[in-house]
Amino acid sequence: MIVIRNPSTSHLQDEKPMYQVDRTSSVPVHLAAWSPTMDLLALSYESGEVSVVRACMTWQVVWNVREEEESFVEGLVWRADGKVLAVSYRGVMNLYNVEGGALIHSSLSEDPVTAWCSVPMGPTSSQPHMPPTPTYLPPLEDVKTDILTTRALLETRKDLNIMLMSDREQSCVKIAAQGVLLLCEVGVAGVVTAGLTADARELCVISNSAQGSTQCTVYNTDTLARHVGNINDIAIVYSKVLTLSEYLLSTFKAVTDCWDDVLSEFNKKLFSFHMSIHPSNLSEQFLHLLVTGMASIELENFLVNTLKEKEISKLLQSTAQSYQGIEKLITRNFMCCCYALTTELQTLLGMSRWYDRYEELGLKEEAVQNSIDKLAGLMIKAQELLQCISNSKAKLNAFLKWLLKATMSLGDGNSSSTKLSDSEMNLVVEFLKTGNLFASRADTTHFKIDTVWQYFSMDDLIVPPDYFNNKILDDVIKILQDSKPHLTVQPSISLVKSHKLFSDSLLDCFDLNLPNLNTPLHSVTLTPLFSLSSDAKTIRYVNEHNIITMVTVSREGLTLTNQSRHIIPDQIIDIFGFDRDFILVTDNGEGAHTVCICFEDDIVRSELSEDFGRIFISESRRLGAILSSQGRRIQILDLDEDGNIGDEEEEEEEG
Questions:
Q1: Residue 277 phi/psi, 5° resolution?
Q2: Which residues pair with residue 216 across a beta bridge?
Q3: C-alpha–C-alpha distance, residues 652 and 655, integer Å
Q4: What are the tens digits of pLDDT across the range 239-276?
Q5: Hey, is 208 helix, strand or coil?
Q6: Least confident range of 16-20, 67-71, 407-411, 514-518
Q7: For residues 206 and 523, what is the distance between their CA atoms, to the nearest angstrom?
Q8: CB 3.0–4.6 Å: which of 183, 420, 430, 628 could bond 633 by disulfide?
Q9: In angstroms, rounded to a whole number, what is the distance separating the alpha carbons of residues 250 and 140?
């Protein structure tokens, strides 16, 4: 292909495009985003699946992800360093590691992501000493994220990555540090897109007014720029707390599953029998059998035909394993995670007391102290649960062993293989007389055979622990002695409720609000055909005379820096830019679309396919991804600096 340059006049050249890749898809593609640092293209399909492909010269699928539930992708944005991909679903935002597509973080969010900028912290950014968090946490099957990978990707110390999101009503722009920590909201009606300058001093927001005009407004974000290093300090702690909180929640699930799977069916059968003999008391029926060796017809039929000897024998073995599993999860996983959370919150407490650096950001000492107190209460409840298990397992084991012996005796009369000692018989009597069978409760839906279950309910404890001569508080205070928590003992609340109180306190703890970001500096009216550069410094738009115009954004004002001398006869339907060059998509009015690269003195033009739908441009890689109108065809177009479209070998000829 021959490219002819005429420096004296604007020259229009028609070229036949040579696509590097031309693919078809069985499922329509509706969004695409180029990586800013690699030849990777992220694609979202109407099915909710997201793929990352190596799309330069070849087509190689790197990884695929899909939400468990049916979902629709509303936003697809790469982080500035290309290491993380943000995907906004309806109600959820996920962050994926570019290497393998591992889920880094997932949060409930109704706000589609708009941009993800990088702000260098610079050599003057001094950070406080931040002690290392224990890196070892025992593995859990339900934890979706790799803790060490998450920290490595979110805890950057060179750049602060700022994510911009527009809410679903398009009434504001939300600013989040590292894509996870919400900093503030800037109220703007009709948000279309937004960008943050590299020095974080100006926020450029483009919006549609109620009158139908397109406005570009620049906001003063000096507060953000002044505290870049401080915000990153908080974001590092926040990313760790997020990861540890997910681990803690997964531990809860593992503990409750470990217990419910074992006793749920047994409890259902007991409850059904209890309702059939109402108002008779189930504990009284068992006590009568224990003392006299005789059972009512209903109880005998229930034990022999419903519970059955094999089921009780199996339950006897599985409950012991379940108790052991819960104790292991609490001591190894749960408490280890709480210690790590304690370290992070103590670090945050010290930062909150550094008023000159962190007070303006909204970090409050009282809120951090409250979180530490709630964490202390959670650790107390975990210790209570261990004591409850220690007290319950011997009694429950003795009760089930006696129940097996009684069932065998009522069945075939042979119970000699199961023997109980005097101490075990005393435990059975104590088990039945102390109300472990909660048959007399008004709320009979909570009928259970043990007291452990009450710690996994949001209701208050039926049998609160006895704190007399209890060393639990002393142990917890020793762990948290540096922060000196004002512990308030709440014997009646459950472990689950205590965890909710702690989780709610974390929301208050990281409820930041940067001041003075809602003041606009400048505003200018644009046309609907515009393009905002990734660094938010340049706006390209097509004015009412079909002339391509470039405006530079600064705090001094919006300055006209260039107007193209090219005359474009066709209707311009989209505009992009590379440095000082323009890329246009035009329509001749008869359905024929053309992509044009506008240099200072030349235009290189190429006709597009008849089924053209949308084009996605990579500013850094000079590549274009063209989607058909139905989204089933994907073409990759090379847009190199010499204006060659898709040609690998360049020939020059003097004009």
A1: -105, 0
A2: 206, 524
A3: 9
A4: 888 888 888 888 888 888 777 666 777 777 877 777 77
A5: strand
A6: 16-20
A7: 10
A8: 628
A9: 7
Rounded CA-CA distance 87/74 in Å is 8
Tokens representing 50 are 């997201």
Residue 261's H or E segment, with its range, is: helix 228-277
Q: Rounded CA gap, 42 and 381, in Å?
A: 46
pLDDT tens digits, residue range 286-307? 888 888 888 888 888 888 888 8
**404 in Cβ contact with 316 (< 8 Å):** yes
* Rounded Cα–Cα distance for residues 383 and 303 (Å): 35
When pLDDT is cut at 50, 70 and 90, the band that residue 476 belongs to is: low
23 exposed, middle or buried (CB, 10 Å; 0-12, 13-18, 19+)?
A: middle
The helix or strand, by DSSP H or E, that contains position 15, with its residue range, turns out to be strand 11-15
107: left (phi > 0), else alpha (psi -120 to 50), else beta? beta
Strand-pair category, 593-598 with 581-587 = antiparallel
Residue (of 121, 298, 281) closest to 200 by Cα position: 121
Mean pLDDT estimate for the chain:
79
When pLDDT is averaged across residues 610-614 and rounded to a whole number, the result is 86
- Distance of alpha carbon 240 from alpha carbon 235, whole angstroms: 9
Q: Report d(CA 179, CA 189) in Å as an integer.
A: 23
Name residues whose C-beta falls within 8 Å of residue 235's C-beta, 6 or more positions apart in sequence.
Answer: 154, 155, 160, 177, 178, 180, 181
- Supply the pLDDT for residue 159: 83
- What sign for the dihedral angle of Cα 553, 558, 562, 567? positive
Contact 202, 194 (CB under 8 A): no
> 265: which residues sit within 8 A by CB, 6+ positions away?
none
How many CA atoms within 13 Å lie on the side-chain side of 82? Answer: 13
pLDDT digits (tens, 9 = 90+) for 89-130: 888 888 998 988 888 888 878 788 888 888 887 654 445 445
pLDDT in tens, 11-64: 445 555 556 678 888 889 989 999 988 889 999 998 889 999 998 777 889 999
Residue with token string 């950070």: 127
568 SS3 class: coil
Residues 547-576 as b/e (b if ≥16 CB within 10 A, e otherwise) read: ebbbbebeeeebeeeeebebebebebebbb
Q: Which residues touch 562 (CB under 8 Å, ≥6 apart)?
A: 549, 550, 580
Amino acid in the structure at residue 387: Q
Let me know if 132 is exposed, middle or buried by CB neighbors in 10 A (0-12, 13-18, 19+). exposed
Question: Strands across the sheet with 202-208, in order?
Answer: 191-196, 202-208, 214-220, 520-526
β-pairing, 623-628 vs 530-532, is unpaired
**CB 489 within 8 Å of CB 473:** yes
Distance of CA 199 to the CA centre of its chain: 27
Beta bridge partners of 614: 627
